[in-house]
Automatic annotation (TrEMBL), chain B:
Protein name: Thioredoxin domain-containing protein
InterPro entries given in the database record: Thioredoxin-like_fold, Thioredoxin-like_sf
Species in which this protein is naturally found: Micromonospora echinofusca
Signal sequence residues: none
Transmembrane segments: 28-49
PANTHER family listed in its UniProt record: DISULFIDE BOND FORMATION PROTEIN D, GLUTATHIONE S-TRANSFERASE KAPPA
Limits of the Thioredoxin-like fold domain: 75-234
């Protein structure tokens, strides 16, 4: 057996557990992101407004709704319910976030991304972290991508509804 | 023989079709449920935020016409100062440049509008930004905004803690010569909480995303040192 075929033989046993890790990892990201913002919805609106993309009134509504949507996505992924849809929604949201940060960067704004709480303009002497923030979001995007391609993972409501034949109908 | 094999084959195909149909239905319904959860979550956030907002506000004595800040001085150049009483950089600004601002006011060069915004409520466990800003409204009502603000910066609590208690806020007010009982009831009744919200919202609308932010005739000043401020005011006064 060559090394690559050995790997290919191991993949079907490893993949479901990688999927669980990706699902729970992404769930944690959303729960933390939503949890740090949900206590101060006005501040969340200000963080959205600081990007200077949306009109103020729209930004406050987006800022108020976003933490709850993030928490809901976290719960869906934690349960493994409608995993592919939740992963797709996560990916779309992350693409929007990356675009927002890139846009702030290109316009020379000096803001905190507000990804996990805080947000708004940085204190004097602090410099923005746009590069690492975008890389981090791309990492999260990779988790979402994995779940989009292979949404069926063990220990999930989706699996339970399907009769726990986790490996039988993975390609649905 | 071959016909039975054919029937088995046909039955298998039918079974598979039924199974596919069940899977399709299941996916559809879980998707509908998940989308509903996400939409409802968003609506909950929106409705909580809307219910938190106050309808009207009362600005304290000495506020500007827009009710977005407290005015000091009447010089030709307008200086806007956006400050949050828990923000360490605001304390540093007060210590470094507060005296220069007072001087510019007494020289009749500037009209200063102080905007006590509550941007940093999450940096204390008791929403100290909002509480201290509303308290500064009570002080403005008693004609001592500046004195009170200076005292608040002097006794600034660290970020991440509970901030100063309401009793401490009252003690500080009494310390700068405000009527203790009147101030205490103003603070307790939250007379200027809605005003704080108004000040904060209008600052955010004006594109002020951090504290301290200093505007001289509407232009943001990058150099907030005494020399930088004087230079900006001189330039704007020409």
């Amino acid at each position: 057996m060559t090394l690559s075929s050995e790997r290919a033989a191991r993949w079907p046993t490893v993949r479901p557990w990688l999927g669980v890790a990706a699902r729970l990892g992404l769930a944690t990201v959303w729960l933390v992101a939503g949890g740090t913002k949900v206590g101060d919805l006005a501040a969340s609106g200000r963080a959205v407004n600081a990007y200077q993309i949306l009109p103020y009134d729209v930004a406050t509504v987006v800022g108020a709704a976003l933490p709850f949507v993030e928490l809901a996505l976290g719960v869906l992924l934690l349960l493994g319910l409608a995993t592919r849809l939740a992963a797709g929604f996560s990916a779309a949201l992350l693409v929007v976030f990356v675009a927002g940060i890139a846009s702030a960067w290109s316009r020379g704004l000096s803001i905190d991304c507000g990804c996990f709480g805080s947000g708004g303009q940085l204190a004097a002497g602090q410099s923005p972290n746009y590069g690492p923030e975008i890389l981090r979001d791309l990492g999260f995007l990779a988790l979402a991508g994995f779940l989009l391609i292979w949404p069926r993972t063990p220990l999930s409501v989706d699996g339970a509804l399907a009769g726990e034949n986790t490996l039988e109908d993975v390609d649905e | 023989m071959s016909s039975r094999k054919g029937r088995n084959e046909a039955a298998r195909v039918v079974r598979e079709q039924l199974a596919r149909e069940r899977r399709r239905k299941r996916t559809l319904w879980t998707s509908v449920a998940a989308v509903a959860v996400l939409v409802i979550a968003g609506l909950i956030g929106w409705s909580i935020y809307s219910s938190q907002r106050s309808d009207g506000y009362t600005a304290p004595t000495g506020a500007n016409d827009a009710g977005t800040g407290v005015v000091a001085g009447s010089g030709p150049v307008t200086v806007d100062i956006y400050e949050d009483f828990i923000c360490p950089a605001c304390q540093q600004f007060e210590q470094a440049s507060g005296a220069t601002i007072d001087q510019l006011i007494s020289e009749g060069k500037v009209r200063v509008v102080y905007h006590p915004v509550a941007y940093l409520d999450r940096f204390s466990t008791t929403k100290y930004s909002t509480r201290s800003s509303a308290a500064s409204g009570c002080a403005a009502e008693g004609g001592k905004y500046r004195e009170y603000a200076k005292a608040l910066f002097e006794k600034q609590p660290p970020e991440g803690g509970a901030g100063l208690s309401d009793d401490q806020l009252v003690d500080i007010a009494a310390g700068v010569g405000l009527d203790r009982d009147g101030f205490a009831s103003c603070l307790r009744e939250g007379t200027f909480k809605a005003w704080t919200e108004h000040v904060t919202e209008e600052a955010s609308k004006a594109g002020i995303s951090g504290t301290p932010t200093i505007l001289v005739n509407g232009q943001q000043v990058a150099d907030r040192s005494p020399e930088g401020l004087r230079a900006a005011v001189e330039a704007a006064g020409k």
